[in-house]
Specification:
Length: about 290
DNA sequence: AAGAACTCCTGTTGGC
DNA sequence: TGCCAACAGGAGTTCT
């Protein structure tokens, strides 16, 4: 899926089209994505004004005037495409399109009062949408156990050390765990660990010092997580296969990858003679340099 | 209770 | 060219 930078890029693309508009019609073309749509989904959205469009971790949150929040998750292959109602039905560079403009896996279309329409396309259907009362959002099962927002103010070496203290799980797995830090995925975990010079196989607990105090390693890791995410947001995210921005254009942070999908290439760390290796942790590829990541 | 494995689904890629 | 296995950016559930 899109990780945090991709979701944030999508949010920024949807925001000008959605905020202040109402749902004029909702075209729900199948009963479920990863999970069933909520009861009377289209009916509950229709007529509602969108007050704000936010993001929590990898979730998009559309605040509706009626007090509910439309929660959207892109899974692995979910994409939103905005048509402003004036131009051609599909943006240039919009792949997976078929002749006549119909597309496979277009599962939901939002038609808005301002003339825009927004199509949700998701080949693997690992994404989902639901409606949650705004008042109870923080206690909802999807959000109750979510960890800290890495681009918020909380993430620093001390917090990371406290979260990881006592954990024997590999750093890679700890960073992927959305209950600790929410929003990182496979790409940005690999990139952050390389920038921090830390082995993905190191026990997470080794980032906590005496009495859970942060080590220099913890401080460094917290700093590079923020750095890599910020750079990726500025680049419009990373496009590998399916991800595209809401206008159909592509992100370009993939060109800045130092290790991800670069097996056998020389390590980009200045002075390092290592080679990027791939290993499998919890069934997922990890890319790293064993020479400079310790 | 932590940690790893399995699961959902479709599409693409690389090896033979 | 075709066939088949492996793999893909996630994460809830189920095991050990």
């Amino acid at each position: 899926m899109p990780e945090l930078p991709e979701v944030e890029t999508v949010r920024r693309g949807l925001e000008p089209a959605m905020v202040g508009a109402r749902f004029a019609a909702v075209d729900q073309r199948r009963p479920d994505l990863r999970f069933p749509f909520p009861e009377r989904f289209a009916e509950r959205l229709t007529g509602q004004e969108i007050i704000a469009l936010g993001r929590r971790a990898k979730y998009l949150l559309a605040d509706l005037a009626g007090g509910e929040v439309l929660v959207m998750h892109l899974g692995m292959t979910g994409r939103f495409i905005v048509h402003d109602g004036a131009g051609p039905a599909h943006a240039p560079g919009d792949f997976h399109r078929e002749a006549g403009g119909a597309a496979r896996h277009d599962h939901v279309v939002f038609r808005l009062s301002n003339g825009a329409s927004i199509t949700y396309n998701d080949a693997r259907r690992f994404g989902f949408m639901t409606l949650v009362p705004r008042a109870g959002l923080g206690e909802h099962p999807l959000f109750r156990n979510l960890g800290i927002e890495p681009l918020g103010n909380e993430l620093d070496g001390a917090v990371l050390a406290r979260l990881f203290a006592g954990r024997m799980t590999p750093l890679k797995a700890a960073l992927m765990d959305q209950r600790l830090v929410a929003g990182l995925g496979n790409i940005y975990v690999c990139e952050a660990l390389h920038r921090a010079g830390l082995s993905p196989e190191r026990a997470a607990g080794t980032l906590a010092g005496k009495a859970g105090r942060p080590t220099e390693r913890a401080r460094k890791l917290a700093a590079v997580i923020r750095e890599v995410l910020q750079e990726a947001v500025e680049a419009g995210g990373s496009t590998l296969r399916d991800y595209a921005k809401t206008d159909g254009s592509l992100g370009y942070f993939q060109h800045a990858f130092r290790v991800y999908d670069r097996e056998h290439e020389p390590c980009p760390t200045p002075g390092c003679r290592g080679v990027i290796r791939r290993l499998v942790q919890s069934g997922r590829s990890t890319f790293h340099c064993a020479h400079c990541q310790r």
